[in-house]
Amino acid sequence: MPEERKKSSLPELPADPLEALERFNSMIATFQKTVDTIDGKLGEIDKAATMIDKSFASPTGFVSKAKPKSHSHLSYEGQSELDYCVECLTKHGQGAKVLMREAIQRAEAGSPSDSGVLEKVRGVVEELVGFEDDSNTVQNEKVSTLNSLSRTLRKFIYAKKAEIGDASIEDLREIKDMVDKLVDATYDVRTSEECIGCTVEELCGGNLQCVEFIEKAAKSVKDPEEFRKILMEAREKYKGG
């Protein structure tokens, strides 16, 4: 007996050609409808993606508007970045001052080469490194001067070999004097930059119009940064009396 032909998995074509054509057209219409549905969904996805991009992109295309700059590192509300920088410098300076005082006390009780003295002096160097790092976080001429003072002091300590026990007691006292001056200079910068009432006389130089200008601004301007701009304006406007 002849072998049975295997059944084809393809659907049988209708005998009537017109019926076959209608079925084919129906399949094409169904396929097109599916394609249109997919296109519509892709369009919705593109639209959503565009909205997300716009909400997170700044005019430069890099920073998100939806994420405001955090000021959580500041010590109090309204503190300027400059004042926070000087606060950090003061902390490092005061730390170095205490360590240097203790280093001299131990040197006077024993020797400048004692391990306890070396530990304190090395701590001073560490504070100075932190001082210099923090002073690089803002662009300010007076803070840059503090950075230079700290760097000069650190190099002086290294030149005297104080951190390895080769400095004299006189060298240690000179280092302490330089640390004290660095701390005083740091407070002077804060006074000149942040203590508005402290700088009016210096800024105006006795010019009454200048004083009146600043007093009027102080009553109307609440934002510290805006008021600082007004002070700079007064400095230029009334320069030379």
Structure overview:
With 241 residues, the protein is mainly α. Among the domains are: 114 residues, Four Helix Bundle (Hemerythrin (Met), subunit A) (Up-down Bundle); 40 residues, no CATH class. Helices cover 71% and strands 0% of the residues. It has 8 helices and no strands. Helix 4 runs antiparallel to helix 5 and helix 7 packs antiparallel against helix 8. The relative contact order is 0.08. About 6% of the residues have low confidence.
The CATH topology annotation of the domain at 81-194 reads as: Four Helix Bundle (Hemerythrin (Met), subunit A)
What is the N-to-C order of secondary-structure elements (H for helix, E for strand)? Answer: HHHHHHHH
Based on the coordinates given, report the CATH architecture of the domain at 81-194.
Answer: Up-down Bundle
Distance between the termini: 126 Å
What share of the residues does DSSP label as strand, in percent?
under 5%
